[in-house]
Design a protein that fits this description.
alpha+beta; three-stranded antiparallel sheet; two-stranded antiparallel ribbon; 5 strands; elongated
């Protein structure tokens, strides 16, 4: 399972000058490996998920989300920049960050 290209978490983690590892390559590698080992009925599935930050106060919501995102090993952004981005994201009543993922599924059978 890997983050989809439109995964909001991944968008927050990357800087203007870099990208996290390419998700499509990782999924393709998993697909090929499963096929090589005889798994059949391979399919690429999408999972719609999100992280929710229930804090009522927007600044507290941004602080919680910043701490969460900054703890990710792929985070390429300073906390100050994350706060600025999250202030825009959490305008109005928004309290979620999308974490859409893709995974390679297959059917298994015993011989």
């Amino acid at each position: 399972m890997q983050g989809a290209p439109d995964n909001e978490v991944l968008q927050f983690l990357k800087s203007d000058f870099g990208d996290p590892p390419h998700q499509g390559l990782q999924l393709r590698s998993a697909w090929d490996r499963l096929a090589e080992h005889g798994f059949s009925d391979l399919s690429l599935q999408r999972i719609h998920a999100h992280y929710e930050f229930p804090e009522e106060d927007r600044s507290e919501r941004c602080k919680a989300a910043t701490e969460f995102l900054a703890g990710n090993p792929y985070c390429q952004v300073d906390k100050e920049d994350l706060v600025d981005r999250l202030q825009l994201h959490f305008q109005g009543d928004e309290n979620k960050i999308g974490s859409w993922n893709g995974y390679v599924g297959c059917k298994c059978s015993l011989n």
